[in-house]
Every structure is written in C-alpha cells, then in structure tokens.
Amino acid sequence: MKRTKTTVGVALSAVLALGLAACGGGSDDNGGGGDGGGGGSAFDAAVSKVVNPSTKTGGTLKYVITDAPDSMDPGNTYYAYNWDFTRYFARALLTFDPKPGEAGLKVVPDLAEGLGQPSDGGKTWTYKIRKGVKYEDGTEVKAEDIKYAVARSNYTDELQGGPHYFTQYLAAGDYKGPYKDKNLDDFKGIETPDDHTLVFKLNQPFYEFDYLLTNPQTSPVPKAKDTGLKYQEHPVSTGPYMFENHSIGKSFALVKNPNWSAATDPLRKQLVDRVELTMKVTGADIDNRLLAGTEHLMLAGTGAEAAARAKILSSDSLKKNADNPLTGFLRYAMLSTKVKPFDNIECRKAVQYALDRTATQGAYGGPVAGDIATTALPPTETGYTKYDLYATPGNKGDVNKAKTALQACGQPNGFETNIAVRGDRDKEVAAGEAMQQSLAKVGIKAQIKKYPSGDYSSQYAGKPAFVHKEKLGIIIAGWGSDWPTGFGFLSQIAHSKAIKDSSNYNEMELEDPAIDKLLDDGAKTEDIAQREQMWSQVDKKIMESAALVPFIYEKTLLYRPPNLTNVYFHLAYKMYDYPSIGLQ
Amino acid sequence: MTAPIEVSGSEVEAQPDAVLAGVDRKAIQGRSLGQIAWLRLKRDKVALGGGVVVLLLILAAVFAPVLVKLLGYPPDEFHRELIDPVFSRPTGAYGGIGWDHLFGVEPINGRDLFSRILYGARISLLVAFLATLLSVSIGVVLGMAAGYFGGWVDTVIARAMDVFLAFPLLLFAIALVGAIPSQASIFGLFELKDNSLRIALLIFIIGFFNWPYIGRIIRGQTLSLREREFVDAARSMGARSPHILFKELLPNLIGPILVYSTLLIPTNILFEAALSFLGVGVAPPTPSWGGMLSDAVTKQLYPIAPHFMIVPGLAIFITVMAFNLLGDGLRDALDPRAR
Questions:
Q1: Which CATH number does the domain A117-229 belong to among 3.90.76.10, 3.40.50.1980, 2.60.40.420, 3.40.470.10?
Q2: How far is A35 from chain B (nearest CA, A)?
Q3: Localized where (chain B) (predicted)?
C-alpha cells in the first residue's frame, strides 16, 4: 500500500495472504495486548490503548494533507490512509476490528453478517449481508450493488487507481467490466442468488479470501449513481457521514448521514458533527497547525517533519501527546545477484558484515525514525521472528568478518560497484553515503547513482536490463505490504515470478525454488500456525542468501492534539483509526 | 541568468591628469597601459580587498589537501560520536564549532564542515573558471568575427546569439545532467566517467550557453574599433584580416575581456551552486557548496542545525562578493570613463 504519493505499492500480481488473527512475532516495541482499555495521555500511549476514551459528541474534526488524495472514490484509491478514512462513508463487506494493538489485525464483518463460508475446497466463498442497511438517500443496500462495485473497480480501464486482486483471483473469464458490458450478469465471478447473498467464485483455492474483502472496493455502489471517475465528487454513503460539499483538489466536508443507524453498524460511532479536509498545505505548516491545535490530524499519517520532530521530542508536554509506532515499512538495500561480483554469496556477505547499521539508521533520522532491522519481515507482519544472521558488535560492522568473506569471494582487496538511490529522497541518498563509507573500510569502492523517484522502478532500479547494463550492484529501496502478513509482504519482493522486465520489486533477482515453493504452498495452507511458520522460513532463506540488506523497521512520530478523544494507533492501517476519533 | 554587463569604451588611453599627481615626470616615461591600470587599481582599496580574498580562496582550494591534513579531517569521514542520535544534530554548541572542527560538523553523520567547504571550493572554482574560459573563448572568437566581417556572417552569428539567449538553460541543464550515462569518451580521445564526466558536463553546459553575453559586447566593440584610423592604416599598408584581428583589434579588447571574465566567474559559481542545489551537480559524497546548501534545506535540518546552512551560504556569498568587487575595480581601472 502507499504511504505517500511516490511510494509505489504492490501491483496487481499475486499477493495476498491472510491469515491470521494474531500477529505472529509481536511488535516488542509497540506494546501489544490492546484490549481496548482506555487511559490518559503519555508518550506512545495510543500505540497500545485508547487515549481519552469518551462518548462526548459535537465539534468539527479537521484534517489536513500536503497534496491531495488520489481519489475519494472507495473503489479507486491505493493509499492506506484512504482505506482508513473512507470508512467514514463507505462500509466494505469485511473490515479490520477497530481496536488498538494486535486485536486490530483481526478481520471482522462490516456489511456482511459473518466471515466467509468456504466450499468447493476453498474455491467458492459465500457471504450474507445485513438487512436494513440504507444509503444516504434512504434506499436499501442490495447484494448486487457490491457485485457492481467490485466489477467497476477491478474490470474497467477508467478506474485504475486501486489494486486489482479480484481480477487475479475471481473466475470471471475475459469479462470486460460494467462500462463496456452493460449486462452485469455477464460478470460470472460473483453470483447474487438473492438481495442479501453474495457468492464469490475463485479460479484457485484460496483459503484466506476474507482479507481481500476488507478493501473499500467491496463497499456498495448503486449503478444508477456511478459516474465513473467523477464518482469521487460524491460517493454515496453507507456509513455515519456523507459528503456535504467536495471541491476536488482543495477541500471537502462530511456531515452526519441521517439514514445511518447504529443498529446495523456495531463498529462505528457518530461523535463529531462535521469532518473537514483541507488539501495542499505544506508539511511544516501542517506540523505548526497541529501543534497550535487549529487543525487536528494529518490525513496521510506520515508524521512530523524534522523541525517539529525536534520540538516535540525536546518538550515533555508535547512529547506526551505523541506516538512513535512502526509503520510496517522496511527500508533496505538489495544486492543484485545478477551483477558481478554479487553473484557470489561471499561478496554479498562481505557487505552484510561491513555495514555500520547505526550509520544507515542515522541516515533515516535515528532511533525515532526506525529500529535497526536484521530480518526480511518487519515486526508488524505475521511470521516475524527476531534473529540476526550477520550480527556485528554494536551493529557497527565487523571489518575482519567482512574481509574474510571477501577473501572467500576471491576479491581480497575489495572491488568497485554502484549504489542506486532515488535522488530526490534525501534520506536514501544519506543512507547510500553511509553505506559507501562503511564499504570503503573494507576496500569496496561504491559510486552513488541518483535516479528520479518517479521512474525508479519502471526505468531504472526496477528494470533488470538497466541494472545489468549500469552494473547497479546495490539498490536502495523500501517496501510495505497491502496486508499485514508474511505472504503479503514477501511474495512481491522474493518470489522468482515477481521478477519483471519493468517495475520489478525483486530487485535482487532472487530465484530460489525453495522460497517459491514455500510461498506457493503457504497460500494454500489452511492452518494459520503452520502458515506463519512457513513465512518465517521464507524470511530466513532470504537472509541466508545475503541478498537483502535490511536497514531499519521504519517508525514515525505522530502528534495527536490533546483535545482528541478515542485516539489509538490502528495496526492494520498503521495510522490512527480515523472514524473512531471524537472531540472534547 | 547572466545580465549582459555594460562595458563601454574600449581604447584604453592614458589619462595623464589622473595619474600624474605626485609622480615625477621621469617615471611616466615608458609606462604601459597595464602599468597605468595597475596603478589605478592599487588605489582602489575595496577592489584590492576583493582581489586578496580571491587569491586566498584560490590558494585554499589548491592546497586543500594540505590544509585539511593540518586543520581538519578527511571530508568523507563520519564522526557519528559527535551527533545526538535522537535529533540528528551535533551535540556540541553552535553545531560543534571548535578548534577540532573549525566550522562545526554536519548533522546526521558528523562530517567535518571545514574540510568539506575547502574541497567544495575546488569544485566550485574549477567549474566556474573553466566554464568562464569556455564562454569567453567562444564569445570572443564569434563576437570578433561578427563585428569585423559584418554581412551574412554577422547576421548568422547574431541570430545564433538570440537563440542561445532565449534557451531555457536551467531546464535543459537539469534534463541533460539527469540523462548522462556513467561514462563517455570525448571525441574518442579520452574516457571520462562518474564525477569527472559530471564536472566536464557542468563546465560544458555553463560555459557553452553563456557565450552570447560576452559575444555581444565583443561584437559591439569590434564594430566601433574596425572603423578607427589605426585599422585603416594597417589595412592601407596591406595587412590582411588575421593580422588586423589578432594584432590590431584583440589587444584593444583585452580590457573588456578581462573585466567581463572577472564578473562572469561569480555568476558561474552561483549557477553551479544552483545546479548542485537542484541535485544535478557532482555525485555524493563529493562536497560542493550548492549541494551542501541543498542538503540543509531538503533534509529540513536548518531549523535545528542552522550552521549547516549558514556556513556554505557564507562561503558562496563571500566568494561571489569578492569576485564582483575585484571585477568592478578592474573595470574602473581599465576604463576610468565608466566611473
């Protein structure tokens, strides 16, 4: 999923995964338990519990964002913050439990009455939807509207903004989408035997299908109200709030939806009177507004910038209103196994041992910006286990071990290579310099190559032909998953089938049949514990290959103005649970 | 980018009244134009000050490795023990400025700013000098040709100048530097790669696209000079064009060329800084002043470590100021009527 406009999310290939209600490894630093018990304000308090629990109503909750959302259409957005925010007005079939801590990773029914009923060996999934749910105009939600929503968001040329997992998993033949093919009955991937039943037909057994349905793409869209790309001006609401006005690219306001009823929606509340979003405010300005209390939340959830960060951390009264959670992103360097001399595992190991991981951590902003990483899976994903294959004293690198590896590689005096970075990401450039400095100590001369971030994966680092030609041995990048599971995270960056001629995220070009088999088999394994076990094995195999050099498990510094109520960090969306927040 | 600089009057004439005061008659005998200009320049304390600063800068850049060995640390060496890990800024007061690190250390990785400024001066001055040399060479040759020959030669060159002046140089520079390969050979003569290629390209872009400014000035000067009596005299004695151009006209153009070059250098320093600031300068970790400024701004570190921005900013400011003062003084000395 995307955190900022420039972060490329997972494309439409194989991903998914599911599973797991309880997060495997547990995030040590983020507290875990999360039973929803409330409490007062303290640094990091909202990571594990609800801060300022209250049922007080009224007030206007104000959001700001630096740019503008890609689209407010629930079927056409690929930002985690929007999957979080659209729940104000769009109810999906399933959703993540609105609770702090690991409880938030559990999938629960939203529009549906219960989780999916699999049959036919995991190829057919049946859902019943709640009766009496109404749109903002008072008409009732029908199963066919959900079928239509999935069809428009996954099968049309117009709506390309979101992921296309349904295209990949549903047995829909060469269905052309509802804009070209006006007869919805031609869409065979979903059947609606009656107004309250949905039957999903898959092209392969997929026991963890429920995760797919948490995406706002499964929130109903009445066919008569669909205006294609313009639908984002006023998506028809099924949630507690609806659009009052919307000036695209500038601002919008949500007001209470009179036809929403708490009786059919046990997960949401209708605390504030209005929700407003102001777009295109600079990052520094947003920080100042939040600190001054004139606005309440930064929609993108990317956290405070350096100046505000220093201000918050150096003042106890501000610090107690801040949280420092993991974002689920792993920042790393990939060593291209197809570029000499990194085709030799010993040369890759030399880099692992030579690297001063405290220096790369410093490049991203120090301990507040992330914990030093030693595994392929971050602690936010299922299957994470803590271990360190290439431990060095104080994480500062070990010149002797690196030289031994270089000897074994047949390059005792080191070698020359290149480090690819996104030139406009100053933190990646700084990380490149830190790496360069570490490697120089063992005789590896690395030259930094800057490329534009917009085409980084399509033209440069993600294009193997270019990587080979320019001898980009080291590629600095980052990754976050669409779903918080080992499969969702690793299948795109480590499976040999993920290697593509362009927009390739397996930049190390790792082709390990054992990893492929574990990932393929894991997706078809019903038992949750067994599946997590398999993701852990994939993680270890990747690290054994020494092709992935993890830098940090990224963290962010979020500020929550003290007058917000019911604030907590939602582990599935990796930002505050927006629809739960009220005002004092 | 570069404003055409008005250099009026070319023929450098001795101004006895101005020079004579306090000098005895004998001394005037045999004094060359250069000597007279130098006499005038010596009296201009401000210009002289600029000249001294310029000289010191050049010496500092040339002897940077020695100075750094004596007073600093290698420019790429990390000193993370001097950095507060939480705030990424130097733990010492005023950015860690002290006897150990004269200009303090860089936030994040603790590199010595003193040595980075010195090494940055090498890049800035090298690019600025060579780019100036390139524009002046092209400008003088084409300007003289246009002014002297006139006719279609003049028309073609003058239109070419217009085209170059209208060129969106900054955008082009960004695009070009972004698209360069990692190595290239220049006319098959020598191979350039990585940083040396980038520096060569910076020099080419800055130098090649700035020639019309000096070209126009030289053309104007040549136009008026070629109608002068000494040119007629030379021609009537059977001198051919090359002789007239190089022996008669060029010496009379030395004044404006010298002045314009001195004033073009600071402009080029700023342009190089601008390109580095925009991320198309030399590759890290090679320091350059514009790149250091850019780091301070894009990393949002200037509010918590202001010295990170002030030090390279001051370096650029002082250098540009010194060159400009020297250039102004030189113009006054060579052409007192322009005062």
A1: 3.90.76.10
A2: 31
A3: Cell membrane
